[in-house]
Amino acid sequence: MKLHEYQAKQVFADAGIPTPGSALATSADEVVEVADDLGYPVAVKAQVHVGGRGKAGGIKLVDDAEEAREAADSILGMDLKGYTVGKVLVEEAVDFTNELYVGVTMDRGEGEPVAMVSEQGGVNIEEVAEEDPDAIAREHIDPAFGMHPYQARKVVYEADIPRDVAGDVASILTTLYDLYEAKDGSDIEINPLMVTSDGDVVAADAVMNVDDDALFRHPDLAEMEDEAAGDDLEAKANEYGFDYVRLDGNVGIIGNGAGLVMTTLDLVDYYGGKPANFLDIGGGAKAERVTNALDMVFSDENVDSVVFNIFGGITRGDEVAKGINAALEQFDEIPKPVVVRLAGTNAAEGREILNADLVTVEETLEGAVQRAVEYANTEAEQ
Amino acid sequence: MSILVDDDTRVVVQGITGGEGKFHAEQMIDYGTNVVAGAVPGKGGQEVAGVPVYDTVDAAVEEEDADASVVFVPPAFAADAVFEGLDTDLDLVVAITEGIPTQDMAKVNKRLSEVDTRLLGPNCPGIITPGESKLGILPGNIFESGNVGLVSRSGTLTYQVVDSLTSRGIGQTTAIGIGGDPIIGTDFIDALELFEADPDTHAVVMCGEIGGEDEEDAAEFIAQNMDTPVAGFIAGRTAPPGKRMGHAGAIVSGSGTGTAESKINALNDAGVPVGDTPEEVADDIEDLL
User: Fold this and answer.
1) Is A114 helix (H, G, I), strand (E, B) or coil?
2) Which of the residues of B are catalytic?
3) Closest alpha carbon within chain A to B236
4) C-alpha–C-alpha distance, residues B151 and B120, integer Å
5) pLDDT greater than 80 at residue A229
6) Closest alpha carbon within chain B to A141
7) What DSSP letter does each residue of A69-81 carry, written as one string?
8) What ipTM is given for this predicted complex?
9) CA distances from B8 to B1, B5, B34, B129 (A)
């Protein structure tokens, strides 16, 4: 789960990390009011989960009320890479001399968190990592031992952070790691961490991503999840408890197990089609889950055909087939052709049970995918 | 022959009194697995699926001489259950649970470096030596005893490939699901090393997927250390960057690491054929045997 900048900044500020004065606004009047209070210049920043907001026109620096209103009018309601901007953060502009980077993330290869500091903040840190890896100092942290101040100092000195702010930066990094640990962060970073002309350090941006699997122990953070900001279908999938990713093709895909569903997507592409989505229905295939899955896929107006690929393991193929029939019988009309492929335990019995008036039954995965691609291409031509 | 589990493996089921634990304990026993006990705090003295339940894994090991455990414990308590298993004389702990917080697993990972017990998983289907023993949730009936080893990050994808092999009369020595999480116990290299040392394993199927760099590391290991031929498959060629594809570990990072392309290239460079479809993987294995 991703926190918005304003949410992450609140968490950081509560932990004692200095942030610029700011407030959230949802209308042009509010933006001007907040900006007048803060004093100009201010930054007006779109609050959406999209990288590269600045370049896309989602961040504007303004010097007076008129400019603030103009910025608000252009940013509020704008479409940023598919997300509509409903909220902006209005924030004091920082007069800075230097932009730094501090962050904590999980190094999955090592199975350990890693704390990172760079003197080259303000730009995409992944680009820095690629072009000049030595520009980022790293310190792996033993998760059982935790991060100690000496480690924070070590990585800060290694990164050649200006001496007059090194102590402050090390202290912010320690706080950041404590947050990472206490809040089950997956990525947490400040980029840029600005050094002001007065020699202070201020978190000018804030990224905080939280491990979805740990949200059960952070109800306060779970509450911040902003479903309306995402894709409607992805929000619906959340509700149904499916792993779902929307793509831009026209062949809907439903299957069980992440690896097999990914493989089905790949095969659709391999046979000349375009996958519309990833949908993992999980173990079993009770009628209700099948109904919900079909409802999801049919709700995507781009979908021209559906391939349903279930490998019956412990759940037997005949049970899966009954679930699929029951689900399909609930539709007055099947809106798009559905191809079903059942394999595994009792698959042959399952195929017998499937209602051939409602679906096309295929024996092999390759055959089912090819058939679905064919249907989609025909539908798309009409 | 086989690796890690066989007829003699004595299994304790952690979480045997829960719905999943009980169901799969019965399935394992039906398959012929030597399940000797259950372990659930506060449930000691009961009997479930025909085996005695103990309050602690330690007691189950002591009383029933168990040497492996399977963990069916909900995510919030699973890391604790794994720690408990690792802190005994068990040889192997298999964690089936999906959804264990990553930072819990980082701590487990640290502990693994301090103990002799091996961990398989989490978020995995388990391990099976066909005709002898299965620890986990794999459907036993699709497997057949034979001479191909299998290691995979995904459950149903493994079944798909096994089904193709079995239907061609190609059986398996042992099949291992290493799990779809970013931090896991036994990894590809560990499994490949065990298969390489097993004289009855004549070829190995390795099913990887997007995310991380384990497949690239495994490719290097294969090139340098393996005589046993390997056929590969990589799922997630069409996955967009930044989206988690079901498994917590199946994600191409924003900067483009963890792509299927990088993994396929690494495997090809190591001389490993990578099928475009699961059927092609079975073709490759036929050629390699």
Assistant:
1) strand
2) 247
3) A262
4) 11
5) no
6) B106
7) HHHHHHHTT-EET
8) 0.93
9) 12, 8, 7, 11
Four-CA torsion B107, B113, B116, B119, nearest 10 degrees: 50
Domains of chain A: 21-92 (3.30.1490.20), 96-222 (3.30.470.20), 231-381 (3.40.50.261)
Summarised one tens digit per residue, pLDDT across range B56-105 is 999 999 999 999 999 999 999 999 999 999 999 999 999 999 999 999 99
B177 near A CB under 8 A: no
Q: For residue A265, give both structure tokens.
A: 């997507």
Domain edges within chain B = 10-120, 139-288
CA dihedral A29, A33, A35, A39 (to 10 degrees): 150
Q: Which residues pair with B94 in a beta bridge?
A: B70, B120
Exposed, middle or buried by CB within 10 Å (0-12, 13-18, 19+), for B255? middle
pTM to 2 decimals?
0.93
- Residue with tokens 């391939």, as numbered in its chain: A307
Q: How far is A148 from chain B (nearest CA, A)?
A: 17
B80 contacts B26 by C-beta, under 8 angstroms: no
Indicate the residue of A109, A258, A345 with minimum beta-carbon distance to B212: A109
Which amino acid is it at A338?
V
Q: Which residues of A touch B160 (CB under 8 A)?
A: 260, 263, 311, 343, 365
**pLDDT, tens digit, 9 for 90 and up, residues A186-218:** 999 999 999 999 999 999 999 999 999 999 999
The amino acid at residue A278 is F
Select from B98, B103, B274 the residue whose CB has the most chain A CBs within 10 Å, as the one to mutate to test that interface: B103
DSSP state of B187: -
Chain B residues 18-57 within an 8 A CB cutoff of chain A = 24, 27
The token pair at B159 is 């079944």
The CA distance from B288 to B249, in Å, is 30
The span from the CA of A102 to the CA of A205, in Å, is 11
Buried b (16+ CB within 10 A) or exposed e, A236-249: bbeebebbbbbbeb
The CATH architecture one would assign to domain B139-288 is 3-Layer(aba) Sandwich (3.40)
Closest residue to B245, CB basis, from A113, A186, A245? A245
- How many angstroms separate the CA atoms of A151 and A140, rounded? 9
Note the pLDDT tens digit of each residue in A111-152.
Answer: 999 999 999 998 777 788 888 888 999 999 999 999 999 999
* Per-residue pLDDT tens digits for B100-134: 999 999 999 999 999 999 999 999 999 999 999 99
Residue A283: pLDDT above 80? no
Name which of B72, B102, B261 to mutate to probe chain A: the one with the most chain A Cβ atoms within 10 A of its Cβ.
Answer: B102
* pLDDT number for residue B288: 96
Report chain B residues whose CB lies below 8 A from the CB of A126.
253-255
**CA-only gyration radius of chain A, Å:** 26
- Reported residue count of chain A is 382
The two structure tokens encoding residue A238: 């959340």
Q: Is B127 on the interface with A (CB under 8 A)?
A: no
CA dist A9 to A5, A38, A186, A202, B221, Å?
Answer: 6, 17, 16, 11, 44
Measure the CA–CA gap between A38 and A61, rounded to whole angstroms: 13
Dihedral (CA of A55, A60, A63, A67) sign:
positive
- Interface contact A181-B142, CB threshold 8 A: no
CATH 1.10.10.10, applies to B10-120: no
Structure tokens at A281: 């229905």
